[in-house]
C-alpha cells in the first residue's frame, strides 16, 4: 500500500481546488446561459401567442394599458384573414395551363375566362403565365401584379388552382402537353364537346392564347357570375400596388373631384391602328416601321384618314381637349392622365394643358423612389392607372380598348359611376365640321352633348349581334348578369330596354 507524505497531499489538493472552482464557475455560466435563452424563448412565444390570440379575439386584452401599442401594431401589419371557404370536392379531369397574351386588362379578362373554363370542365388550373413577349416586353409574373395567395384561396370552393404542374408533367421528364389556342368567342358547348374529350388522351392542355375565348352572351348564368367573381373579388393587386394606387387616389381626392382621362395616344396604339392624324411625316414613317416590325400586327397598309372616319382611331390630345370643353368640364377641374408616354411628348399635350392647367400624372404626384420599383413594368404601371380610373369622379377613355372596357365594367359594378363612352365616329364628323367653320362653337357643343346623353355609363342591356361577337358589346364592359339579383334584371334595365340586334 502506497503512503503519500503530507507535503505531497497538500500539493495535490492545491492543484485540484482551482480545477474544481473552474468547473463550478463553468457550470454556473451554463445554467445562467440556459436560463437567459429559455426566458427569451418563452417571452417570444408568449408575444407571438398573444399576437395571434388578439388577431382573432381583439377585445380580450383591450383593458391592459401595456398591450395597447402591441395590438395596434398587429392590426396594422397582420390584417385579420377571412375564413377560408370549404374546398370544392370534384373528380379532376386534368390540368389546364394558360399563357395570356396582350396588356394587363386583356390578360385580366382572359384569366377570368380561364377560371370559368376550368370550373366548367372540372380541371385543375395552373396559375396563369403572363405575356412577356408583346410590344411592352414586361417581365412581370402573375405574383408581381396579383395577390396569388388570395387568388387561390378565394376561389377554392369553385376550382382547384396550383402554382405549378406536378413534377411528373415537367419537360425534364419528357412530358409535352398539348398546345393549342381555343376557338374565339366559344360557348360552353364547345368546351364540353370538343375540349373536354381531349383530356382523356392528354392529361395537360396548354392554351397558348387566351384573349376573347369565351362568348359574351348565351353562357349559363352561374358561369357569367363566376367570371364576375374572379374579376371583382379574386383578382386583387399585390399589397404594394394597392397601397401606392390608394395613395394616388387619396392625393387626388384631397384636392377635389377629378377626371381620369385614358388618353390612348401612345406609340403602340398608333402603330397598331395606323392612325397618324396630327403626326408629322417623320412620325408617320416611324409608326409604320414599328407596325411592320411586329409580325402579329397583321394589317400593314392602312389609310389613316379612312380609319379615323370610321371611328377606329383614338382621339388626339387636341381633339380630346375640344370634346372635354364641349362636354362642359371647367378649366379648374383636375385631369389625371391614365396612360403611358404620350406620342410626341409635351408638345402634343400643350393644347390640353392650356385648356386644363390642373393636369397631373403619376410621376408628378409621387416621388421618384416610389415609382422606381414599377418602372419598366408596363402592366404594374397600368395597374396603378386602373386603381385611379375606377375611383375617379368621371372616367373618359379616348379609345375603347381593353383598359377602357374593363374599367367601365368595374365602374358599373361600383354603382354605375359616370363613364363617358365617346362616340368617336360621330365626334370626328362634328370636329371636322367645327374646324372647317361649318359649325359654330355653340352648335358644336350642343351636338356633342346631345349625342352623349345616353353614353354616361347608365344601366343598359348588352348589345347582342347574332354571329358577330366582335361587334357586340363586351361582357366585361357591361356584365349585366352581375349587376342585379334576378335573372331578367327588368327592375334595373326595364322590360323594354333591349339592345339586341336581329
Oligomer: single chain
Strand percentage lies at 5-15%
Helix content: 40-55%
Quickly count the helices: 20
Biggest beta sheet attributes: 5 strands, parallel
3D shape: globular
> Ranges with pLDDT <50 over ≥5 residues?
1-19, 50-78, 498-502
End-to-end Cα distance? 125 Å
What string gives the helices and strands in order? HHEHEHHEEHEHHEHHHHEHEHHHEHHHH
- State the total count of DSSP E strands: 9
Structural class comes to alpha/beta
- Let me know the average pLDDT: 85
Spatial extent as radius of gyration: 32 Å
Side-by-side strand order of the widest sheet: 3-2-1-5-4
Keywords: Carbohydrate metabolism, Fucose metabolism, Glycoprotein, Glycosyltransferase, Membrane, Signal-anchor, Transferase, Transmembrane, Transmembrane helix
Subcellular location: Membrane
Protein name: O-fucosyltransferase family protein
Organism: Datura stramonium
Task: Give a brief description.
The protein is an alpha/beta fold and 502 residues long.
Structural summary, described in words:
The protein has 502 residues and is an alpha/beta fold. Helices cover 47% and strands 6% of the residues. The protein is built from 20 helices and nine strands. It has helices spanning 6-56, 68-77, 104-121, 142-145, 148-154, 188-195, 221-234, 239-254, 267-273, 281-293, 304-309, 317-326, 346-355, 362-365, 368-372, 378-391, 402-413, 424-435, 441-451, 490-493; strands at 95-98, 124-126, 161-162, 178-180, 204-207, 258-262, 334-337, 359-360, 394-397. A five-stranded parallel beta sheet has the order 3-2-1-5-4, covered by helices on one side. Strand 7 (334-337), helix 13 and strand 8 form a beta-alpha-beta unit. Helix 9 crosses helix 10, helix 12 (317-326) runs parallel beside helix 13 (346-355) and helix 18 runs antiparallel to helix 19 (441-451). It is globular and about 90 Å long.
